[in-house]
Amino acid sequence: MVAVFVIYPMVKLVIDSLTQGDGIGNYAAVLGSGASRKAFATTLWSSALVTVVSVLLGSMLAWCIRATPSKLRRNIMLLAVLIPFCMGVVIKNYIFAVIFARNGIINTVLVGLGIVDEPLKIMYTPFAVIVGMIYAMLPYATLSLLASFATIDLQLISAAKSMGASHPRAVLGVVAPLGVPGFLASATIVFAISVGFYITPIVLGGTQTPFVASLIGEDLFELFNYPRAAATGVLLLVVALVVLLGGLKLVGGRALKAVLG
């Protein structure tokens, strides 16, 4: 099954990118295009920022869920984290489109309080795309870190506090060192998924925030240039694989498997 649904499509994509159109020239066309370079740059820096913010927020949420003594509060927090999984991709993005609109709730509040004189342009900006991506990736970061934090003995926090450490210092002194594999694994997962985002950059970013996946869609459905789309897809796949293999090497296969559950 893995060979049919995972390996075969990737191998075929590589073969098509080298045998159709201009062959190896497809890669030269992608790398030599200013639009492609901009799309790759935008994709990489946006994904890196989303990864950092998602892991930071996810670590706080995961630790709150792990450390809370109340089963009810733990379940409520878990439900809040899981809600984005129950929503369709298009629905999530159009919710943010409504919020970020010129007459949306943010601009309405800002104008009503007199903070700004006229509505801000939030839609079709990198900020809108990054916020939408963080919302989508936060559950991945939180759940993967929660699996990592579950292996940390809470008695270590009590021991550190008994030796004079404040609660924040005890948590940082224990969780940060022991959670390093979880942080790296979570960052690897979030970044590898983020580089392939398609719907969010289109709905919230428009042409102002071009992503590689959007560029591939344009080549396929508007320019009908499958060979170049295949070459771009291979390059994006290489980036994701490099990140995954790097994370695997840093964290270790067993640790990454544990984080993934």
Rounded mean pLDDT is 86
- Tell me about the biggest sheet? none
Helix content range: over 70%
Total number of helices = 14
Distance N to C terminus: 21 Å
Describe this structure in words.
The chain is mostly helical and 261 residues long. It is 77% helix and 0% strand. It contains 14 helices and no strands. Helix 3 packs antiparallel against helix 10. The chain is globular and about 70 Å long. The mean pLDDT is 86.
List keywords for this structure.
single chain, 261 residues, mainly alpha, 0% strand
Task: Furnish the topology, listing elements before pairings.
Layout: H1 2-19, H2 25-31, H3 34-67, H4 71-82, H5 89-100, H6 105-112, H7 126-149, H8 155-162, H9 167-178, H10 180-194, H11 199-205, H12 212-221, H13 226-251, H14 253-260
Short description:
With 261 residues, the chain is mainly α. Helix content is 77%, strand content 0%.
